[in-house]
Amino acid sequence: MYVRIHATSKPKLMFLASKYWCVFLNVLKNSSGSAKMLTLSSLIFDATGFAQRLACKSASSHGPGLGSEAEQFNVVTTLTDSGDVLEMVKSVIPPLQRSKHKGQDGRLATIGGCKEYTGAPFFAAMAALKTGCDLSHVFCAQEAAPVIKSYSPELIVHPVLDCDDAVEQTCAWLPRMHTVIIGPGLGRNETLLKNVLAVIDRAKDLNIPMVIDADAVSELSEHPEAIQNYTKAILTPNVVEFNRLYRNVVGHEADPREPVGNTMRLSQKLGNVTVVMKGENDIISNGINVLVCCGDGSSRRCGGQGDILAGTMGTFTFWAHKAHADPDKEPNEFLKHFQPTLCAAYAGCLLTKRCSTLAFRKHKRSTTTSDMMSEVGQAFSLLFDE
Where does the chain bind (6S)-NADPHX (predicted)? Predict the structure, then answer.
């Protein structure tokens, strides 16, 4: 059995309230109606991180440390196995079918990688592939390409990002891409950053969903107009990047006591661009609604975990937008309400936290991002497979 806890704060979300104002036990059923046998791994998972789950169950506080302003907004605080929000994510996952052709479930581009940072674009691009996209491209600096290629033959690597005609060569591929992940391992080279801003403009013209992470978020702190009003973008700042972006966009320092209010305001100021403030509890907002993904994760903070998040989110954002626009697909009510970017951002947070939990259970203090990468398939199955 699973304990599922939900909270919501606005009367206009009454269609959620019947499930979000209570704590209930749910016995999983199979198609015949008999109780479903729980595997040892699922039983272990349900016992793991119980203290974190308890921290999420207070409807009045909307989870730990979200601040008094959480009362003013449409806040849904969930666990990582949380009922209808989880069903929303499941509703966008395309079925595996032998009749499909290569590329149907996603062609993704990761734009990043310089001489110093080659691991970050690899982790992002490979996480996207392991989550379920079909083809994963990396557009990087020339010196980074041989190193990234040596990590895995699964990735398609383009050493063009610092060429004289970098923008033209990169943008020539964009019409073939379903999602663009921008920023992992980009570094602070001015030429690369300038080229990336031009690629963002072209991706917007093509209406391509984007996940913007790491050094690209820092660059947007100086040029927020580059992403203003583009609601198919997801920004994934850590606390330092968030505070810098907030200060430059909103005009004053963020209040550390009000993370929900801060995230809402930043999203609104950017024109309802989805913002994911990463942390112990990931706060996700499009300026209208808020999802908070809490529970799971680990106390290990090795570099590269945010790159896995960006990659998983990249695959999910294509799936979510495709499912939302499909006229032949029965719409999921939660997807209609929260919209594709919140769904995708939440799914990425959900999956990454579960990877972290599984890896930490095995490796404890020695856990690395490569260990987390090895858990993507198992985490996906535990969360989303029936």
Answer: 185, 238-244, 307
pLDDT at residue 288, rounded to an integer? 93
- If phi > 0 it is left, if psi is from -120 to 50 it is alpha, else beta; for residue 106 that is left
| Overall average pLDDT of the 95-115 stretch | 96
Bigger pLDDT: 236 or 12? 236
69 is in an annotated binding site: no
Whether the pLDDT of residue 104 is over 70: the answer is yes
Is 302 labeled as ligand-binding? yes
Residue 49 marked ligand-binding? no
Enter the DSSP assignment of 35: B
Flag whether 271 is marked binding. no
List the single range of 20-34, 131-145, 162-176 with lowest mean pLDDT: 20-34
- Asked which of 32-46, 58-72, 85-99, 101-115 is least confident by mean pLDDT, the reply is 32-46
24 among the known binding-site residues? no
Confirm whether residue 305 is marked as ligand binding: yes
Which range among 198-202, 210-214, 258-262, 331-335 shows the weakest confidence by mean pLDDT?
A: 331-335
375 is annotated as contributing to ligand binding: no
DSSP codes of every residue in 309-352: HHHHHHHHHHHHHHHHH-TTSPPPHHHHHHHHHHHHHHHHHHHH
Nearest Cα residue to 350 out of 287, 270, 288, 281: 281
Euclidean distance between CA atoms 379 and 375, whole angstroms: 6
Has 185 been labeled as part of a binding site? yes
Q: Which is nearest to 130 in space by CA: 299, 376, 382, 379?
A: 376
CA distances from 2 to 38, 50, 79, 223, 378 (A): 11, 11, 11, 45, 19
306 annotated as a binding-site residue: yes
Does the annotation place 354 within a ligand binding site? no
Helix (H, G, I), strand (E, B), or coil: what is residue 74?
Answer: strand
326 assigned to a ligand binding site: no
- Alpha-carbon torsion (245, 122, 278, 8), positive or negative: positive
What are 158's two structure tokens?
Answer: 């383009």
